[in-house]
Design brief:
121 residues, 3 helices, rod-shaped, mainly alpha, single chain, 0% strand, 89% helix
Amino acid sequence: MGNKFGEADDAAYVDKLVGKVLVQACAAVTLARPMDPVEFLSEWLHKYCDNACILKDNAREKARKFNKENEREYELNRKANADALWRTEQQACVNHMKTITDDPYLLWDTCLKSVCAFTGK
């Protein structure tokens, strides 16, 4: 005597995990009407699994390319922002030096410090 509660659990388990695939496979058997339906079903399921693996690999590769492109775009934006900030700082130094009109030593010192700061020396 089977336990009806256990059978319901088993049926739900099978339906959840392979129900759609088995329905498709049985439909393929019905349409093809092969001489050996069990062999046909076996081959169909193998092809299904192979195709699922290929689709999974393709999705993984697509995600990898997407991530790589996002990383490249992020790096380009980061460099562009750093360059823009560097140019802004340079322009601020030039503007500050333009205001120094009455003290040539202060201008020379400011100019020397700016050159050192922007050339890394």
